[in-house]
Amino acid sequence: MRSPTTGGYAIAAEFKSEELIVDLLNKRGAMPTTTTNELKHEIWQLLREYQQCRSENVRNKLVKLNFGLVRKEAHYWTNQCHETYDDLLQVGCLGLIRAIEKFELSKGHAFSSYALPYIRGEIQHYLRDKGVTVRIPRKWLALQQQAIGVSRSWREKHNRQPTDSELATALEISPNEWQEIKLAWVNRAPLSLDVPIQDGEEGSTCLGELVPDPHYRSFQLAQEDQLRLQQALVQLEQRTRDVLECVFLQDLTQKQVAEHLGISVVTVSRRVKKGLDLMKELMGVAED
């Protein structure tokens, strides 16, 4: 079996779980017949046991019980790229194992909700590292373009940017679908480190110079990092947040952002730099 790698490591090498994954691939149609509540209880008990003993056997049981989460994500991404289903299953298992390793019972989260971002993020990292461009449904492309017009009209009427909830309502979609659209737009292709983010009288620099840590050298982030990004964004002042969302989430040029927000291109550049500096601090990105 071909073992896909991401960042130079394979699932078998990193977690010594090749036998487990082969077994899962061979038996992926099988799922426990226990009721949902019994299954949740069993998973919870195994998580508690794993945190106490860190047993590989217990961890593998948890992977088997939660393998349906990996299948769901692998199936979704198979339709978005040209990678094989089995390869995406293997990569998704790596994300599931990471979730098991990091899960904290004391925080009271549902494990499935906690694990999905890790699984999805691992697959996205893998696709990005391979240079795969993810296809975006036509409906989402149309909605993203429509959102730009809605934002412009909203600002003219209310003198501010609409919230995500207001945008979703205007587009007649759920807030969750709008978040998925924004995430898909951000992750559609790697962002060039040479993209200029400052110009005019202050000279020029690029994203690669402002984000020196290799782990954050792209804003095409995994779902786990997207959550951290959103948490950091809400802590910024509204004007700076508006600019960053237009540049990185709506993919507008600095000139378009300036026209959209009614400010100068130089002001856009300054706010992007200021925002990125603040984001690095809020997200805990180490300086070289």
Walkthrough of the structure:
It is a single chain. With 288 residues, this protein is mostly helical. It has three domains: 5-129, Four Helix Bundle (Hemerythrin (Met), subunit A) (Up-down Bundle); 136-188, Arc Repressor Mutant, subunit A, CATH 1.10.10; 190-288, Winged helix-like DNA-binding domain superfamily/Winged helix DNA-binding domain (Arc Repressor Mutant, subunit A), CATH 1.10.10. The chain is 64% helix and 3% strand. The chain contains 15 helices and four strands. The protein has helices spanning 11-15, 18-26, 36-53, 56-65, 67-78, 85-102, 111-129, 138-158, 164-171, 175-186, 207-210, 223-233, 238-249, 254-261, 265-282, and strands at residues 5-6, 9-10, 196-198, 205-206. A two-stranded antiparallel ribbon has the order 1-2. A hairpin with a 2-residue loop joins strand 1 (5-6) and strand 2 (9-10). The model is unreliable at 1-19, 25-34 and 190-224 (pLDDT under 50).
How is this fold's topology laid out?
Layout: E1 5-6, E2 9-10, H1 11-15, H2 18-26, H3 36-53, H4 56-65, H5 67-78, H6 85-102, H7 111-129, H8 138-158, H9 164-171, H10 175-186, E3 196-198, E4 205-206, H11 207-210, H12 223-233, H13 238-249, H14 254-261, H15 265-282
Antiparallel strand pairs: 1-2, 3-4
Helix pairs in contact: 3-4, 5-6, 5-7, 6-7, 9-10, 13-15, 14-15
Organism: Nostoc flagelliforme CCNUN1
Keywords: DNA-binding, Sigma factor, Transcription, Transcription regulation
Domain RNA polymerase sigma-70: 87-100
CATH domain fold name of the largest domain: Four Helix Bundle (Hemerythrin (Met), subunit A)
Distance between the termini: 39 Å
In the sheet with the most strands, the strands line up as 1-2
Low-confidence stretches: 1-19, 25-34, 190-224
Query: Helical stretch count?
Result: 15
Mean pLDDT: 71
By CATH, the architecture of the largest domain is named: Up-down Bundle
| Major sheet size, sense and barrel closure | 2 strands, antiparallel
Q: What is the count of β-strands?
A: 4
Radius of gyration: 21 Å
The structure class reads: mainly alpha
Taken in chain order, the helices and strands follow as: EEHHHHHHHHHHEEHHHHH
Q: Which term fits the overall shape?
A: elongated
For the record, the CATH class of the largest domain is: Mainly Alpha
What proportion of the residues form beta strands (DSSP E)? under 5%
Domains counted in the coordinates: how many? 3
GO biological process, one term: DNA-templated transcription initiation
Keywords: DNA-binding, Sigma factor, Transcription, Transcription regulation
InterPro entries: RNA_pol_sigma-70_dom, RNA_pol_sigma70, RNA_pol_sigma70_r2, RNA_pol_sigma70_r3, RNA_pol_sigma70_r4, RNA_pol_sigma_r2, RNA_pol_sigma_r3/r4-like, WH-like_DNA-bd_sf
Protein name: SIG3.3.2, RNA polymerase sigma-B factor
